[in-house]
């Protein structure tokens, strides 16, 4: 490694914690809106995965690429997404970046390097690899692309093909696996037979990094190393974090299949509470200060939600119903 | 009361109980009972025969094909029809070609929870019957009633060829029946869901119910519309369609699919080429709009055909 990797500072930690907190509070709001019947379609939350997700998004730079997945509310906010656009997308506001055409976790702004996932798991890995290849072909250097995936998503063909292809071209790709022990109801034992998902890194010939997904400090450090290695020409980097999803697969899911032993295990800790404790234990801030941050965030989220609820819905009669960009083709659509 | 979804579960239960060659494979279908609960309790009732797969559609279908070659009768579940495209290669290039190439049939059933529901969005709403029907070597069925969901799934298991079973999610809980039939029309036969004299609507899946509602609306205008439920889109029962058009002289095809190259296009092509003289007016069709399925409920409601857009099209057809 050519450059030295800076250690995670107090201010890095607190900045990341504040994003985790915003993500947590925002997701609590989304769950409430869902229960109130105000969100059409599914709500899929990243509770328990904020430390990992934020650590990815916050350590990427302007010009990097980030393709988040289902449980990356934290990473999205860290990479520049907003509470406002999140709520607009979930509530189907016409003013949201997806204009009601797509919803919830499928939002993004590709022009800003913030890719909009498709549901088909694994698909974003080759896509980000291709984006990085194009950057190389354009003669641009120094950008990293990161994408996240679950333990279940590692079983897709796209995961295998994408990571292998990226490795062949030594692209600066960081693939972050949140091993939250379940893919919907399916436990790890029905998902893969290697000892650890990180074992796959050797098979693909990519860098390997393990993170404790419940520890913000460890996630920040690990991601810092992985992103650095990719940026410095080390080729793709696979990060595997151990953690537990602390909610059902979606808000419709009661999580009855959760093994109580896992809940009690080290994976089952709540990364937000642990990070909060760290801040207080280190004497960086008092419990009261931390509590006031939460109240501030709640006020912001509630006010934004109230505002978005008054925004217009997309009007079907105004929509051009065209899926192609070329103007001549768009006229054909409107004729049909 | 038995729902459409429960009928699918009961058909799988019966297939497992009566045919030792049957096993189920798919994501979350074991003790969890599937994303929609179409396999609820079946893992406990049939130990070792209802298996959770990894998140690997290509492998799910590929394994079903291998098992079928060895004499098994696998029923595989795609969590949503939309994700079956990740297993497309195995379905269309392997299952669909096996018999033609080797004379060994491929008796698999691929269950596709299909179609739009409010808030489903671009990747949890698709109707893929037309693309599967495009490939030679596949049977593609689209049950529109509780009874058909049950009997057609049981029949599908017994068919020696690969069957793409397009079950419509919108119907899962909406449709209920008092009892399930023992006998039914075979796959490949369409059904006159409503008799009429002024025009024929040919449709399938969830659009049957929108079409029946449209026909009801037109009764007030003094029209009697005949509604044909295709039941299976491949084979396509051209005889029943032509016989209906012979009675009415007018044809409106309705499908929730995208228009390009879909079932409506195929039906109109057949009627125009084989029954041109039966037509008093140019055939018409109503499809979903030619864009991805939108997430917002208001956009979605305008994207798919509904009773009112179908009735409006029928009025135009009747006034030609
Ligand atoms: C190719 C594909 N198949 C099936 C699904 C349906 N599905 C959505 S999320 C999910 C489970 C994902 O598990 P994992 O990858 O571990 O991510 P997690 O939900 O645990 O974050 C499944 C099966 C999908 N989105 N894509
Ligand atoms: Mg998982």
Describe this structure in words.
The complex is a heterodimer of chains A (336) and B (320). Chain A has 336 residues and is an alpha/beta fold. In chain A, the strands form 2 sheets. In chain A, strands 1-2-3-7-6 form a 5-stranded parallel β-sheet, with helices on both faces. Helices cover 44% and strands 10% of the residues of chain A. Chain A is built from 12 helices and 7 strands. In chain A, α1 (10-35) crosses α3 (73-79), α1 (10-35) runs antiparallel to α10 and α2 (50-59) runs parallel beside α3. In chain A, α6 (157-168) links the parallel β2 (145-150) and β3 (173-179). The mean pLDDT of chain A is 96. Chain B has 2 domains: 2-177, Thiamin diphosphate (ThDP)-binding fold, Pyr/PP domains (Rossmann fold), CATH 3.40.50; 191-319, Rossmann fold, CATH 3.40.50. In chain B, α1 runs parallel beside α6 (146-158) and α9 (238-248) crosses α10 (263-274). Chain B starts with a strand and ends with a helix. The site of magnesium ion has 6 residues of chain A, from β4.
Number of domains of chain A: 1
How much helicity do the residues of chain B have? 25-40%
Major beta sheet of chain B, specifics?
7 strands, mixed
The fraction of residues in strands of chain A falls at 5-15%
CATH superfamily of chain A: Thiamin diphosphate (ThDP)-binding fold, Pyr/PP domains
Q: Which class of chain A in CATH terms?
A: Alpha Beta
* CATH architecture annotation of the largest domain in chain B: 3-Layer(aba) Sandwich
Question: Quick one: CATH superfamily of the largest domain in chain B?
Answer: Thiamin diphosphate (ThDP)-binding fold, Pyr/PP domains
């Amino acid at each position: 490694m050519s450059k030295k990797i800076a250690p995670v500072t107090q201010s890095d930690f607190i900045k990341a914690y504040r994003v985790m907190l915003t993500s947590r509070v925002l997701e609590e709001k989304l769950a409430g809106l869902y229960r109130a019947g105000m969100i059409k379609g599914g709500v899929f939350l990243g509770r328990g995965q904020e430390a990992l997700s934020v650590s990815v998004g916050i350590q990427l730079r302007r010009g990097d690429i980030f393709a988040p997945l289902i449980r990356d509310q934290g990473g999205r906010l860290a990479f520049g997404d907003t509470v406002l656009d999140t709520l607009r997308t979930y509530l189907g506001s016409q003013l949201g970046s997806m204009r009601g055409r797509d919803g919830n976790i499928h939002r993004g702004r590709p022009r800003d390097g913030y890719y909009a996932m498709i549901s088909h798991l694994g698909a974003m890995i080759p896509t980000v690899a291709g984006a990085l290849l194009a950057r190389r072909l354009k003669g641009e250097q120094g950008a990293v692309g990161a994408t996240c995936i679950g333990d279940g998503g590692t079983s897709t063909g796209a995961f295998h093909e994408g990571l292998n292809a990226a490795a062949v071209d030594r692209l600066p790709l960081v693939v972050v696996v949140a091993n939250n022990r379940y893919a919907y109801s399916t436990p790890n034992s029905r998902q893969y037979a290697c000892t650890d998902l990180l074992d796959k890194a050797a098979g693909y010939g990519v860098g390997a990094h393990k993170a404790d997904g419940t520890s913000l400090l460890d996630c920040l450090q690990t991601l810092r190393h992985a992103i650095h290695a990719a940026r410095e020409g080390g080729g793709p980097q696979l990060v595997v974090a151990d953690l537990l999803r602390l909610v059902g697969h979606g808000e419709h899911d009661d999580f009855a299949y959760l093994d109580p032993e896992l809940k009690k295990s080290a994976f089952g800790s709540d990364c937000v509470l642990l990070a909060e404790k760290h801040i207080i234990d280190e004497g960086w801030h008092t419990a009261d200060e931390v509590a006031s941050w939460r109240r501030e965030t709640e006020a912001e989220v509630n006010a934004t939600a109230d505002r978005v609820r008054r925004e217009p819905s997309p009007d079907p009669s105004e929509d051009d119903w065209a899926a192609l960009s070329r103007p001549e083709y768009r006229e054909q659509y409107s004729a049909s | 009361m038995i729902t459409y979804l429960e009928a699918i579960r009961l058909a799988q239960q019966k297939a497992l109980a009566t045919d030792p060659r049957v096993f189920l494979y798919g994501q979350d279908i074991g003790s969890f009972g599937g994303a929609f609960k179409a396999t609820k309790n079946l893992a406990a009732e049939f130990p070792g025969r209802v298996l959770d797969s990894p998140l690997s559609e290509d492998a799910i279908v590929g394994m079903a094909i291998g098992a079928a070659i060895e004499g098994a009768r696998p029923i595989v579940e795609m969590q949503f029809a939309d994700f079956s495209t990740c297993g497309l290669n195995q379905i269309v290039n392997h299952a669909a070609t096996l018999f033609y190439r080797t004379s060994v049939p491929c008796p698999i059933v691929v269950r596709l929870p299909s179609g739009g529901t409010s808030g489903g969005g671009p990747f949890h709403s698709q109707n893929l019957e037309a693309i599967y029907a495009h490939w030679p070597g596949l049977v593609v069925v689209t049950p529109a009633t509780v009874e058909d969901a049950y009997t057609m799934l049981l029949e599908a298991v017994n068919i020696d060829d690969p069957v793409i079973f397009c079950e419509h999610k919108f119907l899962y809980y909406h449709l209920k029946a008092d009892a399930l039939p023992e006998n039914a029309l075979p796959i490949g036969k369409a059904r006159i869901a409503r008799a009429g004299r002024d025009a024929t609507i040919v449709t399938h899946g969830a659009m049957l119910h929108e079409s029946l509602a449209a026909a009801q609306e037109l009764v007030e205008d003094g029209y009697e519309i005949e509604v044909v439920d295709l039941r299976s889109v491949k084979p396509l029962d051209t005889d029943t369609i032509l016989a209906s058009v012979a009675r009415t002289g007018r044809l409106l095809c309705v499908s929730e699919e995208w228009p390009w190259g879909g079932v409506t296009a195929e039906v109109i092509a057949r009627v125009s080429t084989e029954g041109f003289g039966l037509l008093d007016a140019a055939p018409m069709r109503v499809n979903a709009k030619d864009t991805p399925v939108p997430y917002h409920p208001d956009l979605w409601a305008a994207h798919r055909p509904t009773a009112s857009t179908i009735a409006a099209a029928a009025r135009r057809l009747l006034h030609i």
